[in-house]
Amino acid sequence: MYNIFMTLLIIVSILIIIATMMQPQKQQDALNALSGGAVFSGQSKKRGFEAFMEKVTSVLLVLFFVLAIVLAYMSSK
Fold first, then answer.
1. Where exactly are the transmembrane stretches of this chain (predicted)?
2. pTM confidence score
3. Rounded to an integer, what distance in angstroms lies between the CA atom of residue 33 and that of residue 21?
């Protein structure tokens, strides 16, 4: 059982790396650097692929932490 959870943790870790690399990059121009980016574009709602990738990354992160806690509990017994 421990090996199954360990394998799932490794798979989820790789998927988190892939999901993070697939997210669109934010433009870092001089105005955003000086104002912090929240003045013009920071409050807009994410749509389409960007919103989907954010949800996928969030679900994978929650799954990662749940698996890590389960593995920590199993290794202490």
1. 6-22, 56-74
2. 0.69
3. 22
CB-based burial, 37-50: b 16+ in 10 Å, e otherwise: eeeeeeeeeeeeee
Closest-CA residue to 3 (of 64, 63, 70): 70
Distance between CA atoms of residues 18 and 26, nearest Å: 17
Question: Among residues 54, 51, 52, which one has the least CA distance to residue 20?
Answer: 54
**Domain ranges, ordered by start, for the chain:** 1-21+49-76
Q: What is the pLDDT of residues 42-66, one digit of tens each?
A: 556 677 888 888 899 999 999 999 9
**Residue pair 59/67 in contact by the 8 Å Cβ criterion:** no
Q: Which residue has the tokens 């999901």?
A: 19
